[in-house]
Amino acid sequence: MSMVIDLLSVDKIMKILPHRYPFLLVDRILELEPGKRAVGIKNVSINEPFFQGHFPRTPVFPGVLILEALAQVGACALLSEEKHKSSLAYLAGIDKFRFRRVVVPGDQLLLEVELIKMKGSIGKARGKATVEGAAAAEGEFLFALEAK
Predict the structure, then answer these.
(1) In Gene Ontology terms, what is one molecular function of this protein (predicted)?
(2) How many separate domains does the chain show?
(3) What is the residue range of 134's domain?
(4) In a domain, 141, yes or no
(5) Does residue 16 belong to any structural domain of this protein?
(6) How would residue 148 be classed by pLDDT, with cut points 50, 70 and 90?
(7) Which of 33, 47, 48, 77 is deepest in the core (most CB within 10 A)?
(8) What's the CA gap between 136 and 62, in Å, rounded?
(9) CATH no. for residue 24?
(10) Which residues are catalytic?
């Protein structure tokens, strides 16, 4: 039986993930079931450096960073499992992924990720990012584990 952990602040997230500013894209983990699933949030702020060029008059949160935020939430689920604590997780592929709406400064992304398959050091996850209940992006992605 797995344990569900509620609410990880950014300092606890940084103990799980190697990412740091400006590339840590998860502000909080709301739910965590190690090795199975996680739910996190990303607060989108106009102060983020990429908005200077994406796009100057119409700031849009880059879709690839939505995918990266989902992958980081998935990595929290995976790397919080005891047997993977000393590993790194790399994004290895993208399957059936779609961007559904534009995300802009002031939005809060709810990031839900379920780990659906693991074979050796390669795994698959399904993720969905929403803003106020509306789908922003969803799909599946592959990850590869590497021992540190």
Answers:
(1) (3R)-hydroxyacyl-[acyl-carrier-protein] dehydratase activity
(2) 1
(3) 10-147
(4) yes
(5) yes
(6) confident
(7) 77
(8) 11
(9) 3.10.129.10
(10) 54
